[in-house]
Amino acid sequence: ENGYPFPHPERPGGAVLFTAQGKGPGDSSRRVCCRCGTEYLVSPSGRCVRDQVCYYHWGRVRSSQVAGGRLTQYTCCAAAPGSVGCQVAKQHVRDGRKESLDGFVKTFKKEFSRDAYPGIYALDCEMCYTTHGLELTRVTVVDADMRVVYDTFVKPDNEIVDYNTRFSGVTEADVAQTSITLPKVQAILLSFFSAQTILIGHSLESDLLALKLIHSTVVDTAVLFPHYRGFPYKRSLRNLTADYLGQIIQDSQDGHDSCQDANACLQLVMWKVRERAGIQRGHPSASPAALACP
What region holds the Exonuclease domain (predicted)? Predict the structure, then answer.
């Protein structure tokens, strides 16, 4: 139900998602903006047919208890739901990842010696908007000791229409200086990971879709620390890190830092491991592997 990609049973390199998907416009030339909800037209290449500015809220809608009732407003500008967006973009954009389910690779089992271990890694991806939706622009992988083992900017396959810098921290200059493409990233990650490797992340299905990577041994901090209202609501990584680790992340106006986010996920998992170990020392749940979802 969390939207992780699985191998397509009939199409090599294809993926399927076992999750409810919203219906988009039936016309292939029509798209729905994932930021403001406006329907817009695109050419066969994915470019907007008409110049249309996008007014949107970059924050989430949050509800809080106040004197006399509850107050619901956007976190970005404190405006009420339904209000005109506080940000302006040159054009509409779409997510597109759940529609682009080809070009996937799958981790495979490897043989290890008795004293070897498949490894535990945390990863985080950043994305930009292209004519075909969100595509990977940066990936960072850290090991169990919080050392960066792989960090690179990535050149998307399609034309970039919005670098999404507020959230990604990735700029036009960052992408311009790299020649690394997604297939190269996939090859490198397959050399690091095996099917037995434990991958840690926050809303990890988003990263796996961006990487076009199929892997099932995961620990997702969005699942490990569930929202009190249950699925599909999720707590943000920023809030989890503040509440459980006493750290403030994602506080820069320059956007997120994928290395910082990956390390935060790893620290949250270790916090959970220590919590379980404290409840019953020596219990199997005290092992990081016990948190993985195969």
Answer: 119-278
From residue 223, alpha-carbon distances to 1, 122, 204, 236, 266 in Å are 11, 15, 10, 11, 14
Q: Break the chain into its structural domains and give their ranges.
A: 27-94, 98-291
Residue 253 CB contacts under 8 Å (≥ 6 apart), including other chains: none
DSSP one-letter string for 189-241: HHHH--TT-EEEESSHHHHHHHHTEE---EEEHHHHS--TT-TT----HHHHI
Q: Give residue 142's identity as a one-letter amino acid code.
A: V
Separation CA 32–CA 54 (nearest Å)? 12
Say what the pLDDT of residue 26 is: 58
Q: At what angle do helices 204-211 and 182-192 cross, to 10 degrees?
A: 120
Q: Which residues contact 42 (CB under 8 A, 6 or more apart)?
A: 29, 30, 31, 48, 49, 131
Q: Are 161 and 91 within 8 A, CB to CB?
A: yes
Give yes or no for a contact between 169 and 256, defined as CB atoms under 8 angstroms apart: yes
- The 10 Å Cβ neighbour count of residue 170 is 24
Query: Secondary structure of the chain: what % helix, strand, coil (to 5)?
Result: 25, 25, 50
Tokens of 47: 């470019």
Whole-prediction pTM value?
0.87
CATH superfamily entry for domain 98-291? Ribonuclease H-like superfamily/Ribonuclease H (3.30.420.10)
Tokens 């339904």 -> residue: 82
